[in-house]
User: Fold this.
Amino acid sequence: MQLKDKQIEILRVTHTKDADGFATEHHMPIHRGKLWAYFRHLSGQEVWAFHAQHAVEDVLFQVNWRGDIDTRCVVRFAGQVYDIIRVDTFEGHRAILVLYARGRG
Assistant:
């Protein structure tokens, strides 16, 4: 088991329309306080698109088991928001969850 020494927030993403009809994204915490997690960088790459440089960062978070985390959630860590792209239940043992996430550029 990895050392869970980072504090993160898991947020449920919802979309609503504002008065002008534009979609607005809202983040609602699914837990109180912060969760302890193991954090690791998986990869990073720079993408050149439309003459602008963007960094794409793939990371891994490992947390204690929760049944309410899925790919509709995001992780907030150190001021950065990460989209959860995969949830690994670690062979279904209900002990830990591995969250594969991608940073928003």
